[in-house]
Amino acid sequence: MILKCVKVVAAAAFALVSLNVSGQDLLARQAPIDRKLKAVDSVALIRQIKAEKSAYPAYSLYPNWSNERVHAYGNTVTIPDTFRIDMTGFRMPTE
After folding, report:
1. Largest CA-CA distance found in the chain, in angstroms, rounded
2. Taking the alpha carbons of 54, 56, 62, 66 in that order, is the dihedral positive or negative?
3. Which keywords, in A-to-Z order, does the entry hold (predicted)?
4. Tens digits of per-residue pLDDT, 14-55?
5. Phi, psi of 48 (to 5 degrees)
């Protein structure tokens, strides 16, 4: 009797685990895969980056841009915690 219950519980556990795995496989098939970058080697990737840079001429405006720090002036500028902007005479441009 106990052996039969153990077999039933083991079969149920196996069925639940296998359903979870097959569900993960179905989700993995639906996930978007970037096939363009998957099939590209490093030389083709460099060519693709150059083509994107030529498509956007703004890349050449700041060739020495460094994004190592968030603040361009480093720690020399003190930034206040709060700042009030007075917009009493401001009018939104209509044309």
Report:
1. 88
2. negative
3. Signal
4. 655 554 556 666 666 666 665 555 665 777 778 887 887 777
5. -65, -40
